Amino acid sequence: MGFMPRDLRPPVDILHYEIVQEQASALGRMGRALEQALAQLREFDAAHAETPASLQQARRKLVMAAGQALWMFVVQREATGLRDSRHIMRTYNVPAEVQLCMGLAPPTDTARHRS
């Protein structure tokens, strides 16, 4: 008797399954990254009821990091066909300031030196 493959599905179906699996995995990673970034921001805010001027830059970096994580998560969701971001904003309780910086590129050292 010759070789008999266990999976008789066409190769394109197998590939599609693997792509969907990777999309789900990436979506999970992006969601966890957003959760972590928001947790760091909330922990910072809890530790500093009023943020002194000396810590404003540190807080801004956390807000920007959360905005970047939000952007990555939204893009990944949209790539899988999930287009409504309102669910993310409610579920993860994303602050408005984080939503406003979603997708903004953080300033680079090169850009600061040109100013």
Could you characterize the architecture of this molecule?
This protein has one domain (11-106). α1 (11-47) runs antiparallel to α2 (56-79). The termini are far apart. The protein has 115 residues and is mostly helical. It contains 5 helices and no strands. It has helices at residues 11-47, 56-79, 86-91, 96-100, 109-114. Helices cover 68% and strands 0% of the residues.
Topology:
Blueprint: H1 11-47, H2 56-79, H3 86-91, H4 96-100, H5 109-114
Helix pairs in contact: 1-2
Brief write-up:
The chain is mainly α.
The portion of residues assigned to helices is 55-70%
How many domains? The number is: 1
Number of helices: 5
- Which descriptor suits the 3D outline? elongated
- Beta content comes to under 5%
Spell out the key features of this protein.
115 residues; mainly alpha; 68% helix; 5 helices
